[in-house]
Model the fold of this input.
Amino acid sequence: MTRPIYNQTNMQTASESVSYNKRYVDIHCHCLPYIDDGPKTMSEAIELCRALAGDGIGTVIATPHQLGRFDNTNDAEQIREAVGIMNTKLNETGIDITILPGGDVRVDERLCSLLDTDKVMTLCDGHRYLLLELPSEILIDIEPLMTELAQADVSVIISHPERHRMLTKQPKKIGKWLGHSVSFQITAGSLLGEFGPEAEESAWFFLRHGWAQIVATDAHDVRRRRPCMTTAFEHITSKLGPQAAREVCIDNPMRIVQGSDLPDTYQSIKAGASIWGHK
Done:
């Protein structure tokens, strides 16, 4: 079936904003009200979006949870409608940020059929990238699912793998998945120790060796799970250099917004090389 591509004008404007103002692009954020475990009210959602803008973020992909415990809720049309309402509210309140639709999708064997029936969201509604969340309590081999999605021209981005304790202990499985052109998105707060020392260590290891190509906020509110992209960017710059910081916080996220290819780091990973210099 033919799927709608969300507001190409908004996407072009977002691209130009990053190009000229060097603002961050956040591909994983729970900023829509009423819809999942993010803001409970519109005022809370506006407060979070104000914090996102204050953190230097110009473009946000709203990624409400889909499937898992949110099965049969938060379908694609509901998310599109919520994003439209949110952008109108932000315009009315003068908050300079653009929201695009997406989903934080729990792994599910029905994914391809749910994409075909427009129940599950790809990032930016572009049918190019799917943000996939693994269950935390078990480790599922998603290789067959990745192959099936690839046949539908959909690439997988695994959300916050550094926080999955079982996955971080199986580097061979990680390498196998990366060989299927899967990308990893790590959480900005993990780089700052907000999810504990184990997640922090894994996040930096993934980033240094090119196993993670995107940093995102995964923000839910302004208190417990607030955005911290600027601080993460500064830490990455200090440890790995400005090129690495810009690549994972701005350039690669914008490639996702534009539906462009992400850089292929697999050969360097396979060779055991560090993508970025050690500092």
